[in-house]
Amino acid sequence: MKHKTQLSKLSLFFILITTTLTGCTGGEKHTARIEEQKKADLITLSQTQIVSSGLKIGKVTDTLVNNFLNLNGYIDVPPSHRSLAGTYFAGRVVAIHVKTGQLLQKGDALISLENPEFINMQQEYLEARGREVLLKQDFERQQLLANENIASQKELQLVAADYSAAAALVSSLRAKLELLQLDPENLSPEKMQARIQIHASVSGLVAGVFVSNGQWLSPETIAVELVNPGDLQLRMQVFEKDLLHLITGQQVIISLPGDTSSIAQGLISQISPQINMEKRSAEVIAKIRTPLYEELRPGMFVNARVAIANHLVSCLPSTAIAEADERFYALLKTSADTQGQSFRKVEVVPGLVFGKLTAVEFIEKHDSNADFLLNGVFQLIQNQE
Predict the structure, then answer these.
(1) Which of these three, 227, 259, 292, is where a domain ends?
(2) Among 55, 103, 181, 288, which one is least packed by beta carbons within 10 Å?
């Protein structure tokens, strides 16, 4: 029994020794494989190759970049820059002088209307104006007589009342003619007309024409819409969780859907204090400062980015990063002598692009003062593959 126990202990000792040796051998093999892989990833260039190819060597740069809040909205104009043209008095459309997209100046003719009632209104004004002149003369005469105690004050008061009523009627009829966009001062029996023109009240572009020749245009119908694109703005609906990041004066970068290049910039000018209870959002308006009128039009849907915070990111030139086998690599300088320099392929995760720089994250740590090949990386890695 004692002999068996000694044999068992001896067997266990040899098993432990064997396992330890095997484990050491496996670890050495793993380390050897890593070293072999690092050697395989090495690219050695002579000094002549570096100079003749114009290769550059430099360090990772820390770049201050913005965090952006991505929003969307549509281009609009302030209510003061939008005009809906119609008529206060019904008439038949006999001419349309504008077309959609046409640039107009204030006072340009939009449409012409015709209605015999327009003549009656002009006639009533001329008759009332003539009566006012007579009553004014009579009032001035009665006033002189009353001052000399020739006429009674009662007669003066009756004439004054008639004159005041006639003046009020003239003022009323004059205002109606002005609403017809006729000039009462230049009106005479020879100049009465059944046709009038509706003129633009503001300068701008014709956004829409909503009438046709021969149509009866009533006061509640809009004939032409005008917009002045000289003061464009961006309207956005922003969720309440994002409103905390916004303040007036923040810069807004505007781009078209599917295109990240900027076509305009603006500043946030208004933030609504009221949250829409159903949508859980509020309206934010940005005034556009540098629009390209050929590309931006009222009603156009656009994307917007608002810079909300700054932070540092590690960046390399975009030419220092190359893709191979669906992974991205940079070339880390490992050694250098008079004959040349060696670089090792290290994996990186590219991020946002800032002009000619690309933000990168390194899979493995490296010396913060390490040098990298800054250009020609794609060709070198492709040749190695």
Answers:
(1) 227
(2) 103
